[in-house]
Amino acid sequence: MAGSQIESSLDGWPIAKVASFLGVSKGSLYVWSCHDKWGGRYPPAPKRVGRRLVWNPQEVIDYRDRRCAISRKELVYGE
């Protein structure tokens, strides 16, 4: 994907956009961020900007492209 096709704010993507892009609930992303479940099987870690969690768009896209062969159930529940 070309950089011009990646829409993002200066900070990154908000949780709603990441959840929609990955096809998971916002709740799942919140749970993963609270329990530090990142790396490998989970989406990239967010950074905190003020009170918001934001994700680097390129990291989210790269994660989705690597994990596209798994089902949504496996992503959410690890099964």
TrEMBL record:
Q: Which domain of life is it from?
A: Bacteria
Q: What is this protein called?
A: Helix-turn-helix domain-containing protein
The scientific name of the source species is Bifidobacterium longum
